[in-house]
Amino acid sequence: MMIQTTVNKVLDHPLNAWYVAAWDHEVTRTILARTIAGRPLAIYRTEDGRPVALADACWHRLAPLSLGKLVGKEDIQCPYHGIRYNSAGRCVSMPAQETINPSATVASFPVVERYRYLWVWLGDATLADPSTIPDMHQMTDPEWAGDGLTIYAPCNYQLVLDNLMDLTHEEFVHISSIGQDELSESDFVTSHTDTTVTVERWMLDIEPPPFWRKNMRDKFPGFEGRVDRWQIIHFEAPSTICIDVGVAKAGTGAPDGDRSQGVNGYVMNTITPETAKTCHYFWSFQRNYRLDSQLITTQLRSGVYNVFGEDEAMLTAQQAAIDANPDYEFYSLNIDAGGMWVRRIIERMLEAEGRLPAVPVAAG
Amino acid sequence: MASNAAEVWQDARVVETIPLTPRIRRIVLEPPLPIPVAPGSHVDVRVHIQHAIDRRSYSVVDASRDGTRVAISVFDSAASRGGAAFMHGLEPGDHVEITQPLLSFPLRIGAPRYLLLAGGIGITALAGMATTLSAVGADYRLVYAGRAREGMAYLDELSQQHGDRLETRISDEGSPLAVAELVATVDESTELYMCGPIRLMDAVRRAWIERELPLPNLRFETFGNSGWFEAQEFVVRIPAQGIEVAVQADQTMLEALEAAGADMMFDCRKGECGLCEVRILALDGVIDHRDVFYSRRQQNAATKMCCCVSRAVTSTDAAAATVAGSRPARVAIDVS
Lengths: 364, 336
Known about the structure:
Chain A is built from 6 helices and 17 strands. By secondary structure, chain A is of the alpha+beta class. The longest helix of chain A has 31 residues, at 294-324. By secondary structure, chain B is α/β, with parallel strands linked by helices. Chain B folds into 3 domains: 9-103, Beta Barrel (Elongation Factor Tu (Ef-tu), domain 3); 113-222, Nucleotide-binding domain of ferredoxin-NADP reductase (FNR) module (Rossmann fold), CATH 3.40.50.80; 234-334, Beta-grasp domain (Ubiquitin-like (UB roll), Roll). In chain B, 19% of the residues lie in helices and 33% in strands. Chain B has helices at residues 83-88, 123-135, 155-162, 179-184, 198-210, 253-259, 296-301, 318-321; strands at 10-21, 24-30, 41-49, 52-59, 62-63, 70-75, 95-98, 102-103, 113-119, 140-146, 166-170, 190-195, 218-220, 234-238, 243-247, 277-284, 286-288, 304-306, 311-313, 329-334. In chain B, strand 14 (234-238) and strand 15 (243-247) form a beta hairpin. The two termini of chain B are 30 Å apart. Chain A binds chain B through residues 55, 59, 86, 88-92, 97-108, 110, 124-126, 128, 354, and chain B through 1-3, 36, 38, 66, 104-106, 108-110, 132, 135-136, 215-217, 219-222, 268, 272-274, 292-295, 297-298.
């Protein structure tokens, strides 16, 4: 079946994909309960530091293992009847009997720790190739520094992807920090491959908005004047968006590749569906200047936290409006090209998994 | 994953049925609600035996990527209780009721080494696993044991598919399976998946324990239809309920008791869960424990049995037991 159009307001999530389940520091010898792509997980580390993600429901009566405790080197014990599982999800002890039922297992999902995140694969484990984890190397590359947080967003993950793929909303949602008129006035170029989408926008010879003036002054003390500003949005399926952002002194060659007279950041975003109407939005702001300044790391994280709070409020309201108007459809603008390519790619992934819902039939 | 989902019964069409050996037929089914089939899955089939309907589990040997075609293989053994005869009677175009593929024998991806061990028709549970391990480039061996080459299904296909990774052990050709030697080749990080007759699986289990290998790495599936002795008719009594019934050779004790009106508790019907446990009050004969619920110690004590799979036989000497005219074994039980 060829996809004729991309009309779904919100989308299901592919299962044959790596999703971030947690920050590295969240995975400890205390069990973390978190639902990822619709599947409740019990996440922990073994004594030798290996991360583990098990289905958070005991084989026996589905009691949540996350309410249990870690025992021995790598086992987890159900809080209800004491059934123990190892990190592969195999039952290693059963109460009140001398044998172990051979069927007694809970799913143990493939996990990879990379780029400061724990990635989990919930689909067909035979396809779980770690080389397909999206490139977020700025998270751990010594040339970059920064930190981030997690937003628990009460909306379908697709709405967050839409938000990040079209940054003209900054002009209206983020007036006090990064918004400026030139955003919606400037042209942009969209391109795509089978798994990626790129949207590139340059704003030349403009006044820097407050967030960027501050960053310029961190690198160039006392900086005054106009800048060339860029936003290059890199999407990698199914839900990672790394945005190359920055400004350089106007006319110093940034559009041609010389960014030496500017400051460069990478907004690292990876969105993990939780349910059809909620998602975990993991983000970080990485920079490649003043790497040793913890002050700047904290300032940037706080600044972006405030900016993203404005997005969160909008996304929450948007999901509520979608729910309240089930008979209304989406219409598209020219600025949605990036977001619509993202939707097209995700729909093809869902189609390949046999999970693309039929085009909804209009009410009446 | 355990039994992966609620059963979804559906009316599948038989599209192909071909003999693989004198007693094994390959049957290809088209379920109307296809789902991708994970290695280690089986389908349950409603089989018609005389005027009754029963269910049987058959491993999925191979399937199309989207699960629209699912192949099983059915062995009509001497001990068959009638299900195999029904299955062998199917023809293309017939319909049978089946579940979606159910997974109670999951293959874990990511182990450093694998040993797949098939005894006879047990190959049906392991062929799909071998295909998957080959596809992901895993380090695996497939050991396939049988009495005689002509009775071993899929030998040529497996040889082509797995090359040197396939090792055959064929009794008639002077190379029977030596369990202790095989288990001696296994290391701590190897996962062994096996399916076969109870004697084979028990021998592997004992060798495994003797070598102190990690028990969670020993994976097996049994449908509870393999015993230490040939099934024979025996008599079961529940004195407290005044029930006495003969258990036919092609019938389980649980089935006979249900037919006699006993209100029996059970769940898995394959000797795993222990819910069908009955207490043995008196025994004339010996118990053929076919379950994997009791430890060897508990089985030897012969005070309890899993009535869904285990049986009574007259003698531990199978030859003597089948002497015509010998009196059937008798067991008196109490139930929950």
